[in-house]
Amino acid sequence: MYAFLIELVISRISSGGDYYEFPYTFGSWQCCFIVFLFLFSVFPFNVWAEDSPSFISSLGNWLRAPGGVVVNSNTGVVYVADSGHSRIQKFTDDGVLLGSWGRYGSGDGQFSSPQSIAIGNNGDVYVLDYNNARIQHFASDGTFISKWGSRGSGDGQFLSPRGIAVNSNGDVYVADKGNDRIQYFSSEGAYIGKWGVVGSGDGQFSYLSDISIDSDSNVYVADQGNNRIQKFTGDGIFLNKWGGVGWNGRWRVRISTKHINQ
C-alpha cells in the first residue's frame, strides 16, 4: 500500500512538467502526509488592478500547479491551464466556475501538463500541451477542433514548448524552448515559419520561457537564460532588446491592452 502511495505522489509531481527523485524511505505517516499535501492542496489565482498594486480578489478552487491564464477580452471569461489536473477550467472574472474540459492522456482533448493558453480573435482556445509536445485547438466551450505538433526538432515539432500567443490575424506563435526558437502557424496549424538558434546574440535564445504579441503584431519573447526581453516583427526581424543580469527568474511576459503615455 505504501509503495502505491509513493508512486502516486511522484506521478502527480511529474504531471507538472518537472521530475524529482526522492532519496529517502518514507514511513506510513509520512506517506499519508505527502499524499494529502499534493492531492488536496489549493493554488488560487490573485487578481490585481492594472494601474496600481491594489489587490482585487482571488480566483480558483481546486487548482493544482496552474501553468497559464488568459482572459477573453470580449466576454471577460477567464481560462486557466490547470496543469496538475490536466484540464482547462473557465471562470467569470470574479471567480465563478463556468465549466472545464480535459483529463490526463494523449488523445484528442486530453492533456499532459498544459502549460500555456491563448485566445484567438473568434474566441477559440489554443492550449500548449507541454508533455505531449503539441498544440490543441478548441472552441470556447471546449469542443475539440484540431491539433498539431510532435516531439522533435523539425518544422512543426516541439521540445519543451513554454509559451503560446495569437496575433490579430489569427496566427499562432509558440516559444519552442528546447529548440531555442519561435515557430508560427496559421490558425488551423499550418506551418508558416520560424526563427532563432541557441546563443546570446540578437535573435538568439537561451531557455526562452514565454511569448506575447501587441496590437501591431510585434512579438515579445522572454529570453530567460539571457535575462532579457527581445522584440521582433511578426516574421522574426529583430527590433529591440532590454534586460540584464538583475532580471533573474523571469518566466512570463504580457502586453497591456492600454497604451502607455510617454
Automatic annotation (TrEMBL):
UniProt key word Signal: yes
Domain of life of the native organism: Bacteria
Coiled-coil residue windows: none
TM region(s), chain numbering: 26-49
Per-repeat ranges for NHL: 63-94, 102-141, 149-188, 196-235
UniProt KW Disulfide bond keyword: no
Keywords: Glycoprotein, Membrane, Repeat, Signal, Transmembrane, Transmembrane helix
The protein, known as: 6-bladed beta-propeller
